[in-house]
Amino acid sequence: LPLYRAPESSVAEALAAQSVRHHWVRAVLEKRGTLEPLDVLDPESLAQIDRLLLVQPRALTAAENVALDTWVRAGGNVLLAADPLLVGEPRF
After folding, report:
1. Which tens digit of pLDDT belongs to each residue from 66-81?
2. Which of 1, 12, 20, 71 could make a disulfide contact with 46, Cβ separation 3.0–4.6 Å?
3. pLDDT beyond 70 at 15
4. Distant-in-sequence, close-in-space partners of 55: CB < 8 Å, separation ≥ 6
5. DSSP labels, the chain
6. What is the pTM of this model?
7. How far is Cα 60 from Cα 65, in angstroms, rounded to an integer?
């Protein structure tokens, strides 16, 4: 789900997309709390949060998997939503 970044086919398209309306799921989630996107799951970024929502995540690196596992075992809460049938047609 393109909650923060939709796949863009060019730099011009990415720049133009800054004014596009956000996905409706993002609006619903933001009613219940502040969202902070993370580019990398590492001990430093995970230490800043107490709940993590992973929706259709990219493949995590081995280091990210270890950091996530360590964080959850230490009391962090994660909701992982992954559906192999949830795909979108790329615009390019």
Report:
1. 999 999 999 999 999 8
2. 71
3. no
4. 1, 3, 25, 81, 82
5. --SS----SSHHHHHHGGGSPPPHHHHHHHTSS-----SS--HHHHTT-SEEEEESPPPPPHHHHHHHHHHHHTT-EEEEE--TT-------
6. 0.70
7. 6
For residues 49 and 84, give the distance between their C-alpha atoms in angstroms, rounded to a whole number. 27
In the chain, where the domains are located: 25-81
Closest CA to 76 of 47, 56, 35, 55: 47
> How many beta carbons lie within 10 A of that of residue 82, not counting itself?
9
